[in-house]
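User: Assemble these into one structure.

Assistant: Restating your components, then the assembled model:
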Amino acid sequence: MSESDKLIRAHTASEYAYGFVTDIDQEIAPKGLSEDTVRFISAKKEEPEWMLAWRLKAFRAWLQMEEPRWQNVHYPAIDFQDISYYAAPRKKPALNSLDEVDPELLRTYERLGIPMEEQKVLAGVAVDFVMDSTSVLTTFRKQLQEIGVIFCPISEAIREYPDLVQRYLGTVVPARDNFYAALNSAVFSDGSFVYIPKGVRCPVELSTYFRINAAGSGQFERTLIIAEDDSYVSYLEGCTAPQRDEHQLHAAVVELVALDRAEIKYSTVQNWYPGDAEGKGGVYNFVTKRGICRGYKSKISWTQVETGSAITWKYPSCILKGDESVGEFYSVAMTNHHQQADTGTKMIHIGKNTRSRIVSKGISAGRSQNSYRGLVKINKTAENAYNYSQCDSLLIDDKCGAHTFPYLEVSNNTAQVEHEATTSKIGEDMLFYCNQRGLDDEAAVQLIVNGYCKEIFKQLPMEFAAEAQKLLEISLEGSVG
Amino acid sequence: MLSIQNLAVSIDDKAILKDLNLDIRPGEVHAIMGPNGSGKSTLASTLAGRDGYEVQSGSVRFLDKDLLDMDPDERAREGLFLAFQYPVEIPGVSVANFLKAALNERRKHQGQDPLDARQFLIEAKKEMAALEMDPSFLSRSLNEGFSGGEKKRNEIFQMAMLQPKLAILDETDSGLDIDALRIVAGGVNALRNGQNAFLVITHYQRLLDYIVPDFVHVLYDGRIVKTGPKELAQELEVRGYDWIREEYSAIA
């Protein structure tokens, strides 16, 4: 490599550390969306007839629906006929160990900084790696099976556990729920399925790394997690995507069902390609995530660290149906350059003595726009419901924006609702204090922002918290100075 | 170590320091005293490189380098430390994390490896014990909810850890009771050696009972108008500043 090549490498490499494309034999559906596309996907996945019928019903509903435009984000119209709805790695052997994995895939793991063996052994994480649409590798499954835990690709669950899937799929996020949920219901290619039986405390953090890899192919993940009475599970979702020039659409649906005294903890670190500094490229991340606390004293806790995507639009929500159930939402949303985020949560109180807690930290830099949008709804039946909301915004530049849209609907006067909101700018005093101790502006901002997010990072499993902190530092690069 | 020549500084076009001269050699402790508004804190902020302090003329050399040419963080890494009069609060950043980051920046600058967590903890606990600080301080958010005395003690603790070549103490005694004052002064004295120097800015003489200066300078109207031995501080305590004003206006 010549000197100048080296220089160029050094200067471009740091921009988006995960921007590379893995060359694996893809099987890509032709662009466009019709009933035939839906049938193609369903046939590819070797699905039973009921699943195809479910998809087609969703597709017909989608045709009647309009793309929502109320969110505080702006982007050119999406041509849904210009997207390929299915891409799967062609080689799909039955895998029992890492040795059998395509070496190209293993290199991808390495570049993502996920030492699989180490992670398995040291952190005790079972990783279900989703590369584009088809799950390639599922670890620890045998061990989990011994205690009755099912953790597998949802495509497999549809074939192996049709009763469970039929009983719960679409019960939290119905196909008609919204435009993108309907789209996902029609064309979802894969995702994860988790079932925790009664009384089982899942002994490991379940983790899935999603990765969009094929140019121009949208990724439509579908995740379903069911926690039976007195069970517990912690699920981690982390994402990185290779660099692309054209926009990529991602419309996932996540459904959580918690029964009596069950607890589901769902953590996300999202780091999809945000586009370049001029706002070119980047992922559109339009996601519907919702959980229902169906049982008495059940609990669902969402934690998200959102640093990636050109546009993030998602509201992980909790329906608190069971008496004394608890919903939590902890969020860090960081936007830089031209990124846009409109994110928050919905807490729907139905049961008696239900409680919810919302802690949202927005960080805006560059020319980005960052909105918190949240709904707290106390139904007539929700005696003695309690909500605490805290929405903080931190501005790092003069050209960025922070917005807060809190909605409150209270139909029961025994409810108690507390809301706190702050907007602050990183002060010169703070920067100078750090400078005086030898930290340059960038290091100072990183330190201050990490401190600001500490409350959220605390909610994440430790190794994930470290990754979140690293991602935040990468996104902050070039935001000061 | 530090050589200030004909320094003039203004804030928002208002002249605060006018033709200030000061030389500090290794091993020395200099005290700067003066009435309110004479420019004491402006001198500290200018040396540390705070924004908004416009140097109009003059030069400052620090360890044979042009101090005014350096960014505030470079000055700090070169060994200049300011104990703030009003330390800022940084929520969520623990004292330990902050100090470790600062310490490792300094070490990197000096070509040393970063301190590992264990070494850091050993050092920190030693210095905290000397300053009669509880080790639980390390995990508290930086200055958040600290009492005035705790903030000042925390400044001295950072100074002890960072081992600066020149430490500027900006009214470190304000807001301290006599016990805290004694502890803080003890911390400063423990740090004194032949290689480093201190610039102690104070309004009152009592701090100088504990940190005994080699020179006392009186700052008035942006200039050092009188320099003397440590006894000058006692004289100022007894006589106040009026006689300085009279003497100065007679000359001017």
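Chain A touches chain B at residues 427-430, 432-441, 443, 447-448, 450-455 (CB under 8 Å).
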